[in-house]
Design a protein that fits this description.
Blueprint lengths: L1 H16 L4 E11 L8 E5 L2 E5 L4 H16 L5 E7 L10 E10 L4 E6 L3 H10 L4 E7 L2 H6 L6 E5 L15 E4 L4 H14 L4 E4 L3 H13 L4 H4 L15 H19 L10
Parallel strand pairs: 6-7, 6-9, 7-8, 9-10
Antiparallel strand pairs: 1-2, 1-5, 2-3, 4-5
Helix pairs in contact: 3-8
C-alpha cells in the first residue's frame, strides 16, 4: 500500500508539473463484492489509466469512461457517484460501489510558431514555461532538432508549413518567424483565408509589412483582415538579439491573451 501511495503521489506531481489534464478516481465504499479495497486510487487521462487501479474489469472500464467524459466536457471538477454493480456497471454480482472523481483540467493555450531559426530557439523554450500547448513548424529537420523537446511541444517538419494551419484549434495564436517573406506569406495567407485568429504576428520591419499587405491584397484578402496582423510583432522593447526579441514576442502574446480574457485568469499580487 505504501508503494501504491508513493507511486500515486509521484505520477500526480509529474502531471501537475507538466500541466497535463487528468482525473483522480478514489474508491470510497463497497457494498457486496468488488475486486478492490476502499481507498484504492487510479489516475486517468485522455488515453486511459496512468497509475493505480479501482478494481479492474467492468468497474474500472466504467470509471475510465466517466473520467474521460469529465475531461472532454464542462462538468464540475468533482463528482461523487454510486453505481449498482448490476444495473449501472453490467456485472452479474450484486452490490454497489461509491467512487469520487476529481478532475484536474488544464486550460491549454494553443500557440503555433512557424520557423525554427534563431528567434524560435529562444522563444519556444521561454513559452514552454507558460500554460500553453505549442506547435513549432519548419521544413528544416536540423533546426527543429535544436529546440529542446518538451511535453508541451509538438514539432512538425513539413515542406509546406501552411498545410498544418487548418489542423490547429480555432483559438490558436500564430507567430510567424520563418526565414523570410517567401516562407511567411503562404502561412499568413492560409491563416487569413481560413479563420479569424485571436493573434497573428509576423517578424519583420514596417517595409516588410507593406510588402505583405500588397501581396495579400493581390490575393483578394479583405482590408479588415489585412489590418488584423501584427508586423513587426512583439512589444517595442529591448534590442534586436534573438533573446530580447523572444521576450518582446512573449510579452505581446501575454498582453493579447489577457486583453481577450481567455485561457487562464491573471492573478494580481497586492
Amino acid at each position: 500500500m505504501t508503494h501504491d501511495i508513493q507511486d500515486h503521489v509521484r505520477v500526480t506531481r509529474e502531471l501537475l508539473d507538466a500541466e497535463q489534464s487528468f482525473v483522480t478516481v478514489t474508491l470510497l465504499d463497497i457494498r457486496g463484492s468488488a475486486p478492490q479495497i476502499t481507498g484504492a486510487k487510479a489516475i486517468v487521462n485522455e488515453n486511459g489509466i496512468l497509475s493505480g487501479t479501482v478494481g479492474g474489469g467492468k468497474i474500472e472500464a466504467a470509471a475510465i469512461l466517466h473520467a474521460q467524459k469529465m475531461l472532454d466536457g464542462n462538468s464540475s471538477s468533482t463528482e461523487l457517484v454510486t453505481w449498482n454493480l448490476q444495473t449501472d456497471v453490467g456485472m452479474t454480482c450484486g452490490g454497489e460501489v461509491k467512487l469520487f472523481f476529481e478532475a484536474h483540467r488544464q486550460a491549454r493555450w494553443p500557440i503555433a510558431v512557424f520557423g525554427a531559426g534563431h528567434v524560435s530557439q529562444s522563444l519556444v523554450p521561454l513559452l514552454t514555461r507558460l500554460n500553453c500547448k505549442l506547435t513549432c513548424v519548419d521544413p528544416r529537420s536540423d533546426w527543429l532538432a535544436k529546440i529542446p523537446d518538451h511535453p508541451k511541444l509538438s514539432k512538425r517538419c513539413l515542406e509546406r508549413p501552411e498545410s498544418v494551419v487548418e489542423q490547429l484549434p480555432l483559438e490558436t495564436f500564430f507567430v510567424l518567424v520563418s526565414k523570410g517573406h517567401a516562407a511567411d506569406l503562404p502561412v499568413l495567407l492560409k491563416i487569413l483565408q481560413t479563420r479569424q485568429a485571436p493573434y497573428v504576428g509576423v517578424i519583420g520591419s514596417q517595409q516588410k509589412a507593406k510588402v505583405l499587405e500588397r501581396d495579400l491584397k493581390k490575393e483578394g484578402i479583405p482590408p479588415e483582415k489585412i489590418s488584423s496582423f501584427h508586423c513587426p510583432l512583439g512589444l517595442p522593447l529591448g534590442n534586436n538579439t534573438p533573446a530580447e526579441i523572444a521576450i518582446s514576442i512573449a510579452a505581446q502574446l501575454l498582453q493579447v491573451r489577457d486583453d481577450l480574457g481567455v485561457f487562464e485568469h491573471t492573478r494580481k499580487n497586492f
